[in-house]
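Continuing the batch. This is chain 6 of the set; chains 1 through 5 are on the previous pages. Same settings as before, nothing changed between runs. Recording input and output for traceability.
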Amino acid sequence: MKVALIQPALSASRQENLNQLAASVREAASLGVNLVVLPELHNSPYFCQTEDVSRFDLAEPVPGPSTEFFGALARECRVVLVSSLFERRAAGLYHNTAVVFESDGSIAGIHRKMHIPDDPGYYEKFYFTPGDLGFHPIATSVGKLGVQVCWDQWYPEGARLMALAGADVLIYPTAIGWEPSDSPDEQRRQLEAWQTVQRGHAVANGLPVITVNRCGFEPSPLPPPASATTAAPQSGIPFWGHSFVAGPQGEFLAEADTEPEILVVDIDLQHSEEVRRWWPFLRDRRIDAYGDLTLRFRE
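Output for chain 6:
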């Protein structure tokens, strides 16, 4: 599998973002990749920094205008394409949804983000209903893609369930950055924790992990009118980039920096078979003893 990770800096203009992403996908296709992964909510700046009902206007149905655009792009470039959209499922019902396109432009499948954060600067519970599709790999011409979205990447349960369902690779479109007041030491700890937990998913499941983030500073949106439901605006988010691919032993195969980049990586899927023979974690799981994992907390 030859994969391209598109790490963009995004603007306030939807059309500029679409043009930029399309140019990057075409450039990646010219390099012979067969899988392209875009970051989380790539059509716009990260609007969840504040709670503002007018932001629901950014949502659209699936299928809809964006799926038509990216489906046509996948078909033109003959690549499997992983995108991330603000889905309007119905009035008052919205999801943070990854859409995977087959190389003929058809929709191969979707994943609705399961774990929804609610923290200063990341007010996603205001916008998104938790996903209801579970953890199921999406079958494509390049393999079974275990696609999840951002906050999902911190939870080993989702990665394990994708692996148990036959995923060939774990994929996480992401939008994550620092609070501007964080010290350099705190920034380093957060970045290393983010990479470490996902490399742990690779090791525990014997699968490659593909993680794609955005980069650049995005200021908080202007406060909405006083009549709107709102949380206090933050000062903005410096998105840290550092998109990466880890192999099935957690090894870094490639890593971007903090600037816009197209990261192209060759992934040897056969190596996962070899690693799982050496470290047969799935064989030795004590499934008879894990029932309490379905509890919120063990008293």
